[in-house]
User: Fold these one by one.
Assistant:
Number 1:
Amino acid sequence: MRRFIRKSKQKGLAAIEFVMMTPLLIVFMTICLELGNLLVEYQALNKAVRNGARYAVTAIYGTATTQQIAPTTEIQNVVVYGANVASGTAVLDGLLTENVSVSHNNDLVTVTATFNYVPTFATLPFLENDMNLNFSASAVMETGL
């Protein structure tokens, strides 16, 4: 008889615990998804910048010397669009050629891009803060031997 009484007192307790924990689980899952998306976009930016730096030192034709690099606009297009012409869609939404800088000092080419990451859930209702993040990536290549 006692076992039956104890079970009846706890009836529905698991459902109440589930209802209480569900919002917390949803917040943790959202944070994990946003962090994963941030890392994917950061990796895509790094890859685009490396491709731009590689293009800068290898896309030199004619009587070029080891001190020359590809035109800056073409390098910026490679970073943003993945090709040396400004056509198609950008590698990352919101990445513009104005966000890409190219510097050539001595034998080194540095390509740097800045990107404003906008999360899927841009604001949290209870914080009311902007959750956008600015990050940058750089790649350095040698122009010649």
Note: The CA atoms of residues 17 and 23 lie 11 Å apart.
Number 2:
Amino acid sequence: MKGRSIVLLFVVVYWACEPISERKQPVPSLYQLSQMDLNLDGEKLAELYCGNCHLMPDPSILDKKTWEESVLPDMRMRMGLYLEEDIGITLPKDRGVPPGIYSDIPLIQKDNWEKLRDYYLSHAPDFPLPQNEKVAPEMGISGFEEIIPAFDFVYPDLTTMIHVDSSSRIWLGHRSKKLFHLDVSEKPTLLDSLNTGIAPVSLSLRGSSFEVLSMGLMDPSNDSLGNVVRFDPKEGEWKTEIIQEKLMRPVHVSWGDLNGDGLQDRVIAQFGNHLGKLSVFFGGEGEKEELVLKALPGARKTELVDWDGDGDLDIIGMMTQAAEGIFLWENQGEGRFFERTLLEFQPAFGSSDFQLVDMNEDGKLDLILVNGDNADQSQILKNYHGVRIFKNLGNNEFEESWFYPMYGASGVEVADFDQDGDLDIVAISFFPDKRQMPKEDLIYFENKGENQFKPYLPSIQFDTNYLILSKGDVDADGDLDILVGSFDFNDLYKGPSEKWQPIIILRNNILN
């Protein structure tokens, strides 16, 4: 046993001294590390301990206070090390945290923890770092008219989904277990109202029928109340059938035929909280059987595309919550998928949304990504939040080719909105800097060519929170309009007092 410990210690020292890009040995487990007498400095300890779960974060990503009072204490307790300063705090199990998230035994020795902690506190900035210099957005988006339709009744503005159908009508999900069918082409009109689970977030239309994914709970939770429900019109009413249930706070579903049997399969991102997963449910007789692709919380979104050109659909997915990144699940046939990492991010990166499009017309799909989730342990302004283009170099390699800082960036859409032959970008922020004037919670980026984009803000600043971003031709004039879903916290906590205004429309008048 002693000989094994000596060998393992040699591996640890060798691993810690090698550059990250050149390491071949796997990282020793936290338990193995806790049993060794490690003679390493704080930085090397951080590489070992942080690298067990995610990319090692640089101290500069957060200010000293946030490290000291929030992130580092939580990390320490997750590793099972409790100190005198923790007396009187609510233990994880008393907060409803599932077993296994916080260790029952210490996985780091106290002296090693102190060196790791001191490394972060001595290298962190006193205050959050400012954004890099950027082109200031101009007011007013040429060719667009800002409209906020008001319906003739009072109801809370708590939009959770927007889907524009082929008839230019809008399907709108609402936190309060509702799905609305709307027509805003002239006078705002409510066409239909259906009861659903809490917070509908995805919809797929199939002729006169459709399926809806509902979260079950919007607030952080480990409960499994989400579901997929099919709606069929029968004798003037909607008949419902539960297709999937007991989902862990699902936030997105992709529909497509993954196994070539002619049936629609579902890839469901079960974001969860402390627990979560990314799952495939194949259509047909076994459609309630689950294939788990990744058993971690934070699954945010997927796209189905034949990535490797072999004739079947592969899965590109975004994972958030610590082990952040963009991943490829390569379809191997017969219900098997091989996981590859395309991009990895540090745990406070805040990945929120992405689109797959060919930005430079080289025949390869690039990644347009926004990061700005700011609702966890470090709720400060982050200079690395914003909008990015990752150029596809081929062979599953990407490089960042463009970045625009945008605090709290949370949603992105890409299209040739101005119909000049290239792709423009629009992004929203759910966590903007409220002190910025004018607010930068919606920015339109006009593509000027050669990877240059000119930013614009709406000429009207709306007093609400932007949760949802979508696109579609709502006035049937042949161009794409931009739709933003309003989520008003005053309506949530105090109740509504004004007419219902659930969406903001940037109406595209480029063809008028």
Note: Residues 138-508 form a domain with the Methylamine Dehydrogenase; Chain H fold (CATH 2.130.10.130).
Number 3:
Amino acid sequence: MSQYRLTPRLPFTVLEIAGPDSAAFLLSQLTNQLPDPSQHQLQGYCSAKGRLLAIFRLWSPAADRHLAIIPTELADQTAKRLRLFVLRAKVTITLADLSVRGLWGPDMPAGGNVISPAPEAFLLGLAPAGSCGHARAWLVGEAPEEAQIAPDATVASEAQWMAAEIEAGLPWVWLASLDTFVPQMLNLELVGGVSFTKGCYPGQEVVARSHYLGKLKKRMFVVDILGAPPVVGSDLLDQDGVSQGEVVMAASVGDTSKALISVQLEAWKNGYTNSRPQPLAQPLRRPRSSLRRAT
């Protein structure tokens, strides 16, 4: 039996940002520094109010070419918005003809590293997460090339991949959560998605103030849920029917579900039996809560 597991095509698209001025342009728009050529990293794209309009997983095959994974449902509108700020810069922003899948296996690139096993094929290494036990990688490429990288792989589901993302505490912004969270509400700075030493970008003042003044009231946590996964963007209500947070991501795992939720810290503390949580890159789990989903 193959040690590799490969998902079908996932609901993600690749943006290509290219041109002589592309690196400077991205630095002026995104929350993070650009990665080294052999690495990939998370990036946030914020509104002027510091709310996330998208999260990218970005890497740079060349100094003047950058690729970014983004949920397909946000790809067109994000590309159009970015183009508004190109002005006279020598930058093009297009949707690349590359598919996105998930791969588990024993010899994936180390977490954060990128390798290109074939022309226009990329493996973006991630640390192990989920029940599979193996390291995993985003597999991005043109269909003929990517099919040859793990030809004997057994089939894994989209839900298994998304559950592994949740288990690792790696958030995505979706249409239902657009313009809702500042990066720290999704722990983005804790998983390497924000630099507090880079130059200006939209919303930087709000993001920096949340960081340096320490007034953040929401954090993201992993929870296990009995039954079907909740809808992304749905409210989490306390016993008085007041919203205390939102569902960030959710995926089914057998008869149960896993979810990332962004919750008021005070409600999290009061709704769970253990002591006050500390936001960590490896998010905390709590066995029960007084919060309920809005119906």
Note: The mean pLDDT is 87.
Number 4:
Amino acid sequence: MPFGKLVVHSPNPAYLAERVLGQASYTRTFAESRYQLYLHGELPPETEFYRQEMLERGIYLGHHHGVSGRMRLDRDSLSITLGSESQQAYEKIVWSYALKQIFTCMALRHGALHLKASMLLKKGKAILLLGRGKSGKTTLASYLEQTGYYFAGNTHVMVKDHEAWAIPSWRRIRDSAGRESYILPEHREPANGTIHAIYVIDCNREGQFACSPLDNRTALSFMTYFAAAAGNYDLKEDLVDYHRDAGFSERMSLLAAETVLIKHLLRNFKLHYLSADIFDPVCAMKVHDHFHEGMGL
């Protein structure tokens, strides 16, 4: 992991690795921490906090619901026990909650920003693709992968200063008819690089191509609510409860850190809005030429 190691304690941890997370290598990481994820074990009663109460009702994050359970959240570990032994049930809670919480807290602890983004690499340069749900960023990244870019990560990206790290995970692919399928690609190249450009993707089906810089206020709003993890995944309660035994200012510290890091990123990089119809051959070629020229290739 970019922050060090994530150790999964489970009767079948390989199942989660094979189904949810891929293997990644990096030329360097930004920390050497160790985080423990415990699944299935017995949990003692604990003082109630927000996510514990939600999990007891089978509510995970956002629109995600599933088997109810109990959890324990510590500084360097997360323990979850569900009311079912099903591997599929644990796969769902790991993907829809645990990884988002762990990645966000560990990134912020080390001065990095956790983004929902796709990441492309070429010659050590990283292109980040941001977007709302069903905006087409995965479809666009998959197309560019076919033209020679390395599709390093589809969902979870960590950013610190001018460098980005992708965490390989399963991809949800939608074809031209809107049908969905999931794959877990193999990754053989390092999944980090220097940030070259950041785009907000909003694909269309009208054969149109448009690209323009976003004004600062729009960029900040989009980054806060649709890219940075706390707003996008609705993790604000979890970030505050991470320091739930501390004073109020310290409990707010991770949220405050994310706000500072968002503004820092936007000072260093201009966000560009890109709309394209990737299923139209002429438009797809315009996209290819735009990225090719932008990379100086």
Note: The longest strand covers residues 192-201.
